[in-house]
């Protein structure tokens, strides 16, 4: 079982949870994420995220002085077909619009959603059902995929 409807030649957005599951190798999610990473490795799709993801994923490894994990998270973004995107004024403006429309949406989540929407992502991969409140976000929630229909 894995992610379905992966966009060949398209762009997939991942949030910090997905980066953590990938780098720290969470067995429950390895099988479902494998097709996405295999297609990225083959150049069949591009995986992107906000620079915010780097900050979110480095906090605990830095706090715990886990140099190897800091290096692993940083290395994730230096692979071909995997990119971090800057937090621009356009992203912040769209994030503010999203927060204004959806009061329960937190600022970091609004930045992730805005980045994905502005860059025309074909799929937004997360394990946070809170993103369901963002209209137009093509969402794949890992726990829902694992649970099946």
Task: Tell me about this structure.
The chain is of the alpha/beta class. It has one domain (11-147): Rossmann fold (3-Layer(aba) Sandwich). It contains 7 helices and 5 strands; from the N terminus they run E-H-H-E-H-H-E-H-H-E-E-H. A 5-stranded parallel β-sheet has the order 3-2-1-4-5. Helix 1 packs across helix 3 (51-63). The relative contact order is 0.20. The mean pLDDT is 93.
| CATH class categorisation | Alpha Beta
The averaged pLDDT comes out at: 93
The arrangement of helices and strands along the chain is EHHEHHEHHEEH
Distance between the termini: 12 Å
CATH superfamily placement: 5'-nuclease
Poorly predicted sequence stretches spanning 5 or more consecutive residues: none
Beta-strand residue fraction: 5-15%
Which architecture does the CATH hierarchy give at level 2?
3-Layer(aba) Sandwich
In one word, what is the shape? globular
Strand order of the largest sheet: 3-2-1-4-5
The helix fraction, in percent, is: 40-55%
Biggest sheet, open or closed, and with what strands and sense? 5 strands, parallel
- Put simply, the count of helices is 7
Strand count? 5
CATH topology (level 3) name: Rossmann fold
Q: What Rg do the Cα atoms give?
A: 15 Å
Instruction: Tally the structural domains.
Output: 1
Assembly type of the shown chains? single chain
**Helical/strand content category:** alpha/beta
Pick out its properties.
52% helix; 13% strand; 149 residues; five-stranded parallel sheet; Rossmann fold
In a nutshell, what does this entry contain?
With 149 residues, this protein is an alpha/beta fold. The chain contains seven helices and five strands. It is globular, with a radius of gyration of 15 Å.
């Amino acid at each position: 079982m894995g992610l379905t409807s992966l966009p060949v030649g398209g762009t997939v957005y991942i949030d910090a949870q997905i980066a953590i599951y990938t780098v720290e190798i969470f067995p429950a999610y390895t099988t479902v994420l494998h097709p996405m990473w295999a297609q990225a490795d083959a150049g069949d799709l591009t995986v992107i995220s906000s620079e915010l993801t780097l900050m979110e994923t480095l906090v605990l490894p830095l706090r715990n002085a886990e140099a190897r994990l800091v290096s692993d998270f940083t290395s994730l973004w230096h692979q071909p077909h995997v990119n971090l995107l800057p937090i621009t004024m356009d992203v912040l403006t769209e994030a503010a619009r999203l927060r204004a429309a959806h009061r329960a949406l937190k600022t970091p989540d609004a930045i992730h959603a805005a980045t994905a929407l502005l860059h025309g992502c074909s799929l937004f991969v997360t394990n946070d059902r809170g993103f369901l409140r963002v209209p137009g976000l093509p969402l794949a929630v890992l726990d829902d995929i694992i649970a099946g229909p």
